[in-house]
Amino acid sequence: MAKSKPRVKxxxxxxKGEVITIKTLISHKxxxxxxxxxxxxxxxxxxxxxxxxxxxxxxxxEVDIEPAISANPYLQFKMRVDEPGEFEFIWNDDDGSVYxxxxxxxxx
Amino acid sequence: MKEMSRRQALALGSGLVxxxxxxxxxxxxxxxxxxxxxxxxxxxxxxxxxxxKLEVPEIAENGNTVPLSVSVDSPMTADNYVKRVxxxxxxxxxxxxxxxxxxxxxxxxxxxTRMRLATTQNVxxxxxxxxxxxxxxxxxxxxxxxxxxx
Lengths: 108, 150
Fold this sequence. Notes:
The complex is a heterodimer of chains A (108) and B (150).
Chain A: E1 6-9, E2 13-14, E3 19-26, E4 48-55, E5 58-65, E6 74-80, E7 85-93, E8 98-107
Parallel strand pairs in A: 2-8
Antiparallel strand pairs in A: 1-3, 3-6, 4-5, 4-7, 7-8
Chain B: H1 2-21, H2 30-41, E1 47-48, E2 52-55, E3 59-62, E4 66-72, E5 82-89, E6 96-102, E7 109-115, E8 121-129, E9 134-145
């Protein structure tokens, strides 16, 4: 399929102790493995099966994703800010591909 | 003779159409959902509780993208936080939707996503807290157009 493009919307800076909202989206067809083509053959499953959000190397939030998640999986979650650093977002594809995106966060 | 073969061809054609249309995706049973909950809790009871909230639309026009938001009332400190929340759809071909893994760093145990629902059904959310307790909630979504299978 076309290359999946991850997108992240998170604040660039926050104050210490603040709980910030992070929104992520990755373009992906999320083929469920339930659909059939015109010949009646099952279209094989092909989804993003796992998402990880790390901050300064520490896992903050993870999701096990099933085929029941819609195409272009969208995830919104929270994180408490203790120190400045860098986010790392990781998406794992059924086909073995790994998509990552990094973003810095300032505190002040 | 010529007419016969035409009939046969038509019969064959309609047969093919029937084959491609008939096999509807099998739906999960309530037992399967209960089985999944048991697997999640390790056999422990998950009582319906007000600390877990599941926000889903009452009516979803399109079962392909149904917004969903789950939150659990918790201080989210190192010794008292929400570990995991599993989401299950009772009448999807497979009940599993997603499992959110929270940490104390989450600050607030709250997450949103978009899911597929095959038909009108209950969505179940079960939360595991760091003290080992399990909390459950359910919500019904009416689906106008299903979002599974073709």
